Amino acid sequence: MTFGFSERQWQRVREDYSAWWRGDLGRPLVSLVRTAAAGASALPECLADWPREMSDDEVVAEVVARVERTELHGDAVPCFWVNYGPGIVAAFAGSPVHSAPDTAWFGRVPHERLADIRIALDRESFWWRRVAHVTELLARRIGDRVQ
Fold first, then answer.
1. Is residue 142 within 8 Å of 5, Cβ to Cβ?
2. Between these two residues, 64 and 118, which has the higher pLDDT value?
């Protein structure tokens, strides 16, 4: 895998971002990120929209391929957002997930009365296991080179 920064590049980023926050950089921070189309898959950005049948290893392989096709320019830093949609925590508690183009929607869990609502993490849910395991695998695979 060629994606990532050398220690020298990270040092430059730390210096430039620190100077910017102090008001001493004298220019804006400009991040330009381009993902090459060559070899791109048809999978959407939101990982919750990827087929549930994909194994965690297949998800990680696709993410790594995307990261490797990413070009960084200017002040951009290597990063990847494990994006399962804005309400994935609701799915961890039992909310149904509905895929939509480039996002996911999370349905309500029906209750008769407000007093009946109990929010609890379901560590056996597909979504908790998927997100936790994929994140762990990605951290092991690219975590020392990517935020």
1. no
2. 64
32: β partners: 73
Backbone angles phi, psi at 3, to 5 degrees: -70, 140
For the chain, what is the radius of gyration of the CA atoms? 19
Token readout for 67 is 């990261």
Q: What is residue 123's predicted lDDT score, i.e. its pLDDT?
A: 94
Question: Which ranges in 1-147 belong to alpha helices (H)?
Answer: 7-22, 56-68, 88-92, 126-142
**pLDDT tens digits for 75-122?**
999 888 899 888 899 999 888 888 877 778 888 877 788 888 888 899
CA distances, 61 to each of 33, 43, 92 (Å): 20, 13, 24
